[in-house]
Amino acid sequence: MFPSSPLEHPAAACILFAILAVSMAAFSSQALFSRLMLHPVSIARERKYYLLVTHGFVHANVAHLLFNTVSYTAIAFDVDGFLGPVDFLTVYFGSLVLGALPSAWKNRSNPRYYAVGASGAIAGLLFSGMLFFPEGRIYLAFLPFAIPYPLFCAIFLVVSWYGARRNMGNIAHAIHLAGGIAGMLLTVILRPDVLARFIDILSGIPPVE
């Protein structure tokens, strides 16, 4: 999305490496996959709170992993550049955990519910990046035109909200929704000035540098 080198941002690079390494290991070990996936009953009854983090490092299949790593790569290194490594990791893991909490609470008595994937954290990075670069555009392979970054995020929120209400598909829409909102709020907390700049740019007012 923005010009940036992964080698300049080791925090984002380490997360990417961990996602790939753990996911690939879990593909060949069902036991490992089961130990790391988000399972709300295990959190509620066995206090396995670490599942709120570990579920983001395993994926359902290769296609799921590929989609998430491509999405992560398109966003993460540039958000790392905007935030710096410590705040980047705060937004990433904060979005991962806060994105999963509502679903974990809602399904705390549902032994059949589980979720895997880094999508909640990636949604958090997506919304964090929007605050820093509201004039940006998102290019999708199946569309012949670019979508303004804030419009894309608005559509993402609506689709995630609707999908969560309707339980559409085998997709954790609620985690996407909560993760995106968490990433935006955490960014504003860490960088309070970014919100005023975001509003000024959307309003057509030149930001004060």
CATH hierarchy class name: Mainly Alpha
Mean residue pLDDT = 92
- Write down the secondary-structure element order: HHHHHHHEEHHH
Shape: globular
Q: Domain count, please report it.
A: 1
Radius of gyration: 17 Å
**CATH T-level fold name:** Rhomboid-like fold
Keywords:
single chain, 209 residues, mainly alpha, Rhomboid-like fold, two-stranded antiparallel sheet, 10 helices, 67% helix
Could you describe the 3D structure shown?
The chain is mainly alpha-helical and 209 residues long. The chain has a single domain (6-203), classed as Rhomboid-like (Rhomboid-like fold). The protein is built from 10 helices and 2 strands; from the N terminus they run αααααααββααα. The protein has helices at 10-27, 30-36, 40-46, 51-54, 62-83, 85-106, 119-132, 149-166, 173-190, 193-203, and strands at 137-138, 147-148. The protein has a two-stranded antiparallel sheet. The longest helix has 22 residues, at 62-83. The protein is globular and about 50 Å long. The relative contact order is 0.14.
